[in-house]
Amino acid sequence: MPLTKRLLEDPHALADLLRPETPLERRLLTTAEFRHGLLWGEPRFGHPEGKVALHVREVLSNIDLIRHLPDTRREQLRLIAFTHDTFKYAEDRSRPRDWQKHHGILARRYLEAHTADREVLDVIETHDDAYYAWLTERHGQGPGGKTLDALLQRMEYCLQLYYLFFKCDTQTGDKTQAPLKWFERMVKGIEWVAVREELV
Fold first, then answer.
1. What is the 3-state secondary structure (H, E, C) of 136-189?
2. pLDDT of residue 98
3. Residue 27 belongs to domain spanning
């Protein structure tokens, strides 16, 4: 059976795909709202895999490739990966866009009932802001007026975690690697990691 069809028809398929490692990961996969978000999505630019769960699997595989990653950091990255795009289905895309209904903010609000880890919650909320800041740099004005300075000011306290997730998330699908290379060039104080052979 094709994987996408199995994900929709087999109640165990999500767990088989994502291989939860913690009680929280397992609990999230049992909630209807969370499962709905993981099973949402059609192939599109940046996400040729379609379903959010398939993208999450790619991000988790990248996390597995980071060498010398402490267990606590790995657990944080996995929880961010599980949650970061899971509420895209609920995002408001009307114009003008209401940025308080961005999927990152919706995901953060959902996860606040399950963890008090501020680093995890802040990275989930802002996980797309580096990409938006890159667009601002290129075009003078990006979505929501996001800038690199504002992102760094907010995330300085957990910048390495932010960078690690941004790298694992960007090196998936057919996403352009330019924002990641720009971030690595522009941001001081991060320790570069090689997740996989650098994509062009």
1. HHHHCCCHHHCCHHHHHHHHHHHHHHHHHHHHHHHCCCCCCCHHHHHHHHHCCC
2. 86
3. 3-186
